[in-house]
Design brief:
- With 240 residues, this protein is of the alpha+beta class.
- The chain is 32% helix and 24% strand.
- The protein has 2 domains: 72 residues, Beta Barrel (OB fold (Dihydrolipoamide Acetyltransferase, E2P)), CATH 2.40.50; 156 residues, Recombination protein O, C-terminal domain (de novo design (two linked rop proteins)), CATH 1.20.1440.
- The strands form 2 sheets. Strands 1-2-3-5-4 form a 5-stranded mixed beta barrel.
- A hairpin with a 3-residue loop joins β1 and β2.
- It is elongated, with a radius of gyration of 20 Å.
- Bound molecules: zinc ion.
- The site of zinc ion has 7 residues, from loops.
Length: 240
């Protein structure tokens, strides 16, 4: 009997064309983490699986551990307003790339899934584009859920209290006293701002002023963690 496939809820992270009519989807599922799926289009119409869309997918395991095959899809949230503003779409693409880069394959990722879904629901509900600095809050939360966010509320080396001038090594180790280690020079205010962005719900940060130094540090942390720049950050630079 043919494998009927399994059902997974997922958010589409990226879509790329393959051969003439087919596509390869990267999706994020709360139960399976990052998953690749092959979508044969043939003469059938695509099921509206664009970036950021949340859908219930039926997937069949690929042969010998290869890509899954998408058997069927039902769109749960098409995020219809995302595509009505360049800024919202750019922020949506950025969120998908960021969380796609930090999420693991073959591991449950309920927190990263919830974060990305919240981000996309929020962007879809806005009637205007939010300030691009909102992306920094997403970066800090995604790093936290990936377990790689630096300690910001104490010295990562000696455990002592934060002082007015601290150092921060973006690749890890957290904030440290200048006598305890090296890194970027950051003030206690910037560390407090990073901590606020990390802990405050996204919807409470829409159109709230954010310290631009903290925005720069958040992107430094992501770059250091991934070892490369996110391609979609270029889209955000155009919005500043
Ligand atoms: Zn110290």
């Amino acid at each position: 009997m043919r494998d009927p496939g399994r059902e997974v809820v997922a958010i589409v992270l990226s879509v790329s064309a393959y051969a003439d009519d087919d596509r390869i989807l990267k999706v994020l599922s709360p139960t399976e983490g990052k998953v690749g799926a092959f979508q044969r289009l043939g003469r059938r119409k695509p099921a509206g699986l664009d970036i950021g869309v949340r859908a219930r997918l039926r997937l069949r395991h690929g042969r010998e551990g290869g890509l899954n095959t998408l058997v069927d899809a039902t769109v749960e949230d098409p995020r219809i307003h995302l595509r009505s503003g360049y800024g919202r779409l750019a922020l949506a693409q950025f969120g998908c790339e960021l969380i796609g880069a930090l999420a693991r394959e073959a591991h449950a990722e309920p927190k990263q899934f919830g974060l990305l879904d919240t981000w996309l629901v929020l962007l879809d509900a806005l009637r205007g584009d939010p300030d691009v600095s909102l992306a920094a809050a997403l970066e800090l939360k995604a790093l936290t859920f990936a377990g790689v966010a630096p300690a910001l509320d104490r010295c990562g080396a000696c455990g002592g209290a934060i002082e007015q001038t601290m150092h921060l090594e973006p690749a890890g180790g957290g904030a440290v006293h200048p006598r305890c280690g090296g890194g970027l020079v950051v003030s206690a205010q910037v560390l407090a701002e990073l901590e606020r962005l990390r802990r405050t719900p996204l919807r409470e940060l829409v159109d709230v002023e954010v310290d631009p130094v903290a925005v720069g540090v958040a992107s430094d942390l992501v770059r250091a963690q991934l070892g490369h720049e996110l391609a979609s950050r270029q889209l955000l630079v155009g919005l500043c």
